[in-house]
Amino acid sequence: MADIEPHTAPPLIDFPSDFPIKVMGKTESQFPETVILLIQTIVPTFNPENIESRISSSGKYTSLTCTVHVESQVQLDDIYRLISAHPLVKFAL
Fold this sequence. Notes:
Elements: E1 17-26, H1 31-42, E2 51-55, E3 61-70, H2 73-85, E4 89-92
């Protein structure tokens, strides 16, 4: 199978788009606010009302689904890099 050059590959997402980002971290009071502020660093118009929150059955972890209006793949990648690098975040999908 031939390798596809990144610049010639068709986009997987049509931009602009409302894109759901799932973020998992330990259940701590500052976790949701931290994720909101991180996203607003890249997308200042991000509305915190666009977050769904769920706590694990043990109560140890919180999962946030943040639906973010993104304009480009670069912007989406920047959000993922910023969120994933934060110490409160276990992972982001």
